[in-house]
Specification:
2 copies of one chain form a homodimer. Chain A has helices spanning 9-12, 25-32, 41-54, 71-77, 89-95, 113-122, 131-144, 181-191, 209-230, 256-268, 285-288; strands at residues 19-20, 23-24, 36-40, 60-64, 83-86, 104-106, 125-128, 149-155, 163-166, 176-177, 194-200, 203-206, 236-238, 278-283, 292-304, 307-312, 336-338, 348-353, 362-369, 377-380, 402-406. With 409 residues, the first copy, chain A, is an alpha/beta fold. Chain A has 2 domains: 9-39 and 290-406, Lyase, Ornithine Decarboxylase, Chain A, domain 1; 69-283, Alpha-Beta Barrel (TIM Barrel). Chain A is elongated and about 70 Å long. Chains A and B meet through helix 5, helix 7, strand 15 and strand 16 of A and helix 5, helix 7, strand 15 and strand 16 of B.
Chain lengths: 409, 409
């Protein structure tokens, strides 16, 4: 049998019926159907507070909308954070209802002219990913008569050790190689665009606090070096994010207090050149991932050649990452539980499979759970980030699941 | 650098501009926007004809709708095939417009009662995946007063060697273990349900013709054994599919003529017990995969640390499998071409990356192509099956791509 990932702290010590935002899992399913994503907003708020308590005063918190663009969640989160980061014109159109353009930034390779223009018109900061993109944005500024707000996304010559996805230190489609950034900064300033600063994103989903501390320090140092080499002070430096959350057995959470304390020291010592620079940290998964639970009902319980399968009415069409098919090399189990039997003895060896007619649709592979019968509800945790929108929801033509935000006001 | 997969025969020998269904790739993009999926129906028709020419008379051809449920494609394909296989109530609702219920079968684990009832009411054959599901279907038949049409999906005690996805020969969420099938068949017949036969699916995406021949022979033998042990002749035996198509360098097509010839021998020798049984082969990918081309425009061409990236306006949100994130262990390149330069010398080492802000979004990894500039169109082949609906199309909020069926009438 294989281990399951750690159940997030808000749910780990529950006994009996799984409660989410004060309501039983079965009640959520009864009210909204199965499968359903339930997001407990109190947990998002708690993460924001944890961040604020740990980080130096003045460090801004941005929400990376791509982690979960569910509109009620974004609307509720927007007032708690200092900025929203979007990755497409679609996300931009959504968030303009919740945040002023000046507090929104737009990163991502392959921005089309129409996307650049939407951002320029909305007064959004464009994190430009290449010299070519910068020039297209400047041209759009000239054509529209609106000075574009431009920051340069940097492909740093450092990488975030232990990050789930490395995004720096190598050839990359993201950002401009650090050594070419000073020339581009000068070109942007000379163009008459509004110079907004630097976006330096070295990796994501890292659980090694020391690596995060080291990377933040190196990122601030890189920003200082680029400021000096370009002769232009960045009004803002987006330090990226990279704070991971535990998904798999053996994972442990990042120590935000320690990271904040180290960053405080780094910023205190940053020198005059970056004295007026505002720093931001951009988080998606860390803010919302653990707030979400995916609930799905057991439709069949079947034996085959000595193994037991719980067939549920959800599947990889809503939970691609949990099925091990999105960005993971080795398939490992997300945290999973039988919602009616939290804390009960686990003595039933099963695999939890989805309702799709493909062997890929396996949500938990050979795990030991309390015994579940047909009709019982299974909970897959860490469903708050990169869940529904990061899954092939149209695959095999099943209905869309409900999403519910609880506790937002 | 890494190899790319073989361009399908209909496109491989083209020179100059890529033509799809008699129209230039750039014209398709100009007419429908970028990115766009273009399906050339003449290629689907040719596959159907290839199947008919190769297979013994009387062997039925079913289309597995999940491979591509695009409505105009299903509508055009339905009259050419003998049956449609669906995997959800959503697919069922779609195809009832094109095919009588008696020519539709519904397979898949985790069918809910509402799905079973929809199938019973439509007179669709249910390939039941477990004893429990069979009993639920029988109960629905009693409640509605309509005898359900039931076939048993068998988890065979054999597997398709070399198949991309193994679905037999082991513990499986699909079907009923062969050794338990006779008892279930007798139970179904005794219940008053309409007994429809057996569905035996041993694997998919196999390119080894010998393995397919061997598996078909073993499947017919298994059907005969189950008929004898159950004392009930199956009116139909669905032999599954499993015919693969080349995706990666070194892949070669299956030899349908040889498979058909071998199956002919097997069926001629099948003995009296299966003398009146109708045989069907169920194909998805093989019928429609090569008919589709995904066209996407280059938005940026950028250098980073000695590598060149073509950033396109498509990505893994439409082409998850081509990005290596769906069911593949080792990432390999799908066939890809610069649409305006078919047959031109390849001397530009590039990676083709999508517009999503994630390192996973790579459509071609370190390949050598003719030189492409911003504005050029890149073609990803084998986009006719498991493309758009098998991808996380909502990820990052980009607009839906167009789909076009060409040459259908």
């Amino acid at each position: 049998m294989k281990p399951i990932g750690p159940i997030p702290p808000a749910f780990a010590d529950q006994e009996g019926t799984l409660m989410i935002a004060g309501r039983a899992a079965e009640a959520w399913v009864a009210a909204h159907g199965s499968p359903v994503f339930v997001y407990d907003f109190a947990l998002v708020r708690a993460q924001v507070e944890r961040f604020r308590a740990a980080m130096p005063a003045g460090v801004r918190l941005h929400y990376a909308v791509k982690a979960n663009p569910y509109a009620p969640l974004v609307r509720a989160t927007a007032p708690l954070v200092d900025g929203l980061d979007v990755a497409s014109a679609g996300e931009l159109a959504e968030v303009l209802a919740y945040k002023h353009g000046a507090a929104i930034s737009f990163a991502g390779p392959g921005k089309r002219d129409a996307e650049l223009e939407a951002a320029v018109r909305a007064g959004v900061t464009l994190n430009v990913e290449s010299e070519g993109e910068a020039r297209r944005a400047v041209a759009i500024g000239e054509r529209t008569g609106i000075a574009p707000r431009l920051a340069v996304r940097v492909n740093p010559d450092l990488e975030l050790r232990g990050s789930g996805m490395k995004m720096g230190g190598r050839a990359s489609p993201f950002g401009v190689d650090a050594e070419r950034v000073p020339a581009l900064v000068r070109e942007i300033v000379a163009s008459g665009a509004e110079w907004r600063g630097l976006h330096i994103f070295a990796g994501s989903q890292a659980l090694d606090s020391d690596a995060l501390i080291e990377t933040q320090a190196a990122t601030v140092a890189l920003a200082a070096r680029l400021a000096e080499e370009s002769g232009r002070v960045p009004p803002m430096v987006n330090l990226g994010g990279g704070f991971g959350i535990p998904h798999f057995a053996g994972d442990t959470p990042v120590d935000v207090a320690r990271i904040g304390s180290a960053l405080s020291g780094v910023l205190d010592a940053r020198g005059a050149l970056l004295g007026d620079t505002v720093f931001a940290i951009e988080l998606g998964r860390w803010l919302v991932g653990e707030a979400g639970v995916y609930l799905t009902r057991v439709v069949d319980r079947k034996e085959s050649r000595g193994e037991t399968f719980l067939v549920v009415d959800g599947g990889l069409h809503h939970q691609l990452a949990a099925s091990g098919n999105f960005g993971t090399v080795v398939r490992r189990n997300y945290p999973v539980a039988v919602a009616g039997q939290m804390g009960a003895p686990a003595n039933d060896a099963v695999s939890v499979v989805g309702c799709l007619c493909t062997p890929l649709d396996r949500l938990a592979d050979r795990v030991v759970l309390p015994r579940a019968e047909v009709g019982d509800v299974v909970a897959i945790f860490i469903a708050g980030a990169y869940g529904l929108t990061a899954s092939p929801s149209a695959f095999l033509g099943h209905p869309a699941p409900a999403e519910v935000l609880a506790g937002a006001s």
